[in-house]
Amino acid sequence: MKKAMKKQLRLQRSDWLIGVPMILGGMLFGIAVMVFLVNMEGISEIKGYIPVGTLLGMIMCGVFCGLVMIGALPVNFNLQVSLGCTRKQFFVSYYLTWMLGVLVYYALLLVLWRAECLLYERLWPALECGADFGGPMLRWGIPVCVVFPIVGGFLGAMIMRFGRKAGIVLWVVWMVVCLGGPKVAEAMEEAPDSVYGRIGTGILELCNTVPGGVWAAGILAVALLCLAGAYGIVRRQQVTL
User: Fold this and answer.
1) What is the pLDDT of residues 204-239, one digit of tens each?
2) Across the strands, what pairs with 49?
3) How confident is the model over 42-58, as pLDDT tens digits?
4) pLDDT at 21 over 70
5) ∠ Cα 43 47 52 (to 5°)
6) For residues 73 and 32, what is the distance between their CA atoms, to the nearest angstrom?
7) Residue 208: exposed, middle, or buried by beta-carbon count in 10 A (0-12, 13-18, 19+)?
8) pTM of the model
9) Are 194 and 187 in contact (CB under 8 A)?
10) If you write DSSP's letter for every residue of 5-55 in order, what string do you get?
């Protein structure tokens, strides 16, 4: 297992290094946007600053890790199993190394969040933080770092098993979320009685009604199902080179 872990680290090291400038780029762009907005509106018109750089850094991190995890699993599986690694060793090492990589990104995002807040406090001492990301990041960061690779690995296993069909389904779901999400959020404010507005209100009420413990148990159950499903695919998958 230790040998398989080392191989995975060597394969993924270059991917992790690519992710760092993407996160930093999103961070710098977000800071530039925040500075531009404050300068354009004026400090007297701004109620508080938002760590936009941290938000964009998290988005870039999530998109990058998701795409690489999904795309790299079939490639790494074929390469390592063809070189003598057992399917079980590959499965365990792939998930553990990606969890480690996401944890490294998480630590980087915490540092960048604090640095961004300190920068804004220095630039605009009269302004207060209008959105504190620190609490949610500290509370949910570790669980997300564990669950995210599990879901990403499952999607990668689905694409490896079903090929283009799974890719099309994943793309459709992604587009529905990207296009429908903003539409629902906008309708909740501007047209709450519309179909999209009612959908958004219903989702919000559901989130507020269901206790946090139930959400945690549900997320854990989904993660375990994804883990079992991915292992079932990897265990039976043939090497294709």
Assistant:
1) 666 667 676 777 788 888 889 999 999 998 888 887
2) 129
3) 766 677 778 889 989 99
4) yes
5) 90
6) 35
7) exposed
8) 0.82
9) yes
10) HHHHHHHHHHHHHHHHHHHHHHHHHHHHHHHHHHHHH-GGG-SEE--HHHH
